[in-house]
Specification:
The protein is 21% helix and 41% strand. The protein is an alpha+beta fold and 207 residues long. The longest helix is centred in the last third of the chain and has 21 residues. 24% of the residues are buried. Acts on ADP-mannose and ADP-glucose as well as ADP-ribose. Prevents glycogen biosynthesis. The reaction catalyzed by this enzyme is a limiting step of the gluconeogenic process.
Length: 207
């Protein structure tokens, strides 16, 4: 069996970092070298990195009704008049982890802000890098128990220009939407696939 992940953080040498922009997110240019699979070191590599930090997302699952809460909101990155489809995306409840916060705290707070629901039995599902070729963002996904009968209406913080519509969707329907591309953002697809693999365990633990 071939070795995997034979390198560590220490096998990259940072030569220089240049700050390019500091706004809602940060942009920097990184010059680096790294060890090669065949041995030795690479030449200088230059990459621009969008620095976003970390975010938490919630697979908000109601085991009694076998339903999941999705939220819908506009995303400017999905706007392209040359393409079909809508820039209003169906997503998991999610939010950025601010300095001094724990990912679990963000999951609880965003469930209230974006969907008006209390989440309990918060369970870590997985943590993943989001597009690490050019973005610094670690996504922490949690499964949480909710009462979906209380999820309805419009939510979001006006000062953050949020306009969020809540949807309660049968788990099987949400999974089918992910399969055929009605749900087409990576975090939601990943969360719904995780739920499809693990919902029976959640039902056993939460019912």
């Amino acid at each position: 069996m071939a070795d995997i992940q034979q390198f560590s953080q220490n096998d990259i040498e940072i030569l220089n970092e240049e700050p390019l922009y500091d706004g809602f997110f940060q942009l920097k240019r990184v010059h680096f070298r790294h060890k090669l699979f065949a041995g030795g070191m690479s030449g200088e590599v230059v990459r621009e990195l969008l620095v976003k930090g970390a975010a938490s997302a919630v697979i908000a699952y109601d085991p009694e009704r076998d339903a999941v809460i999705l939220v819908e909101q506009v995303r400017i990155g999905a706007y392209n008049p040359a393409l079909s489809g809508s820039p209003w995306l169906l997503e998991l409840i999610a939010g950025m982890v601010e300095e001094g916060e724990m990912p679990q705290e963000v999951a609880v707070r965003e469930s209230q802000e974006e969907a008006g629901v209390e989440v309990t039995n918060l369970t870590h599902a997985l943590s993943v890098w989001d597009s690490p070729g050019g973005t610094v963002e670690r996504i922490h996904l949690f499964a949480g128990k909710v009462d979906s009968s209380k999820a309805k209406g419009l939510h979001g913080l006006a000062e953050e220009h949020e306009d969020i519509k809540v949807h309660v969707v049968a788990r099987e329907t949400a999974y089918e939407w992910a399969e055929r591309g009605k749900v087409d953002n990576s975090i939601a697809v990943l969360g719904l696939l995780w739920l499809q693999l693990n919902y029976k365990k959640l039902q056993q633990a939460w019912l």
